[in-house]
Design a protein that fits this description.
This is Integral membrane protein. With 86 residues, the chain is an all-alpha fold. It is 85% helix and 0% strand. It has one domain (4-85). It contains three helices and no strands.
Length: 86
């Protein structure tokens, strides 16, 4: 039997890697700061910590702190993106 939690964690890790890859590609081609793909990667990374905690891979306190840090980073990146558009 396949542990579906590991599949979802793997899918979220793939989203994180893709977000970082898109950000690197966008920075290399345009020279602009790619904040949206990095915010998506940070939010997906928060999901990795939450799924890992729910399935016993991370301790609850560590997962909560890391999830909060990732979500704060994602919100901060989006705020920076909207401020730079003005």
């Amino acid at each position: 039997m396949v542990d579906t939690a590991l599949l979802w964690i793997g899918l979220l890790v793939l989203v994180v890697v893709a977000g970082i890859g898109v950000a690197a590609w966008q920075f290399a081609t345009t020279g602009e700061r790619p904040l949206r793909p990095l915010a998506i990667a940070a939010a997906a990374f928060a999901g990795v910590f939450q799924l890992g905690q729910a399935n016993g891979y991370f301790r609850p306190t560590a997962a909560a702190v890391l999830t909060a840090a990732c979500l704060l980073l994602a919100v901060g990146l989006i705020v920076m993106e909207f401020r730079s558009d003005e």
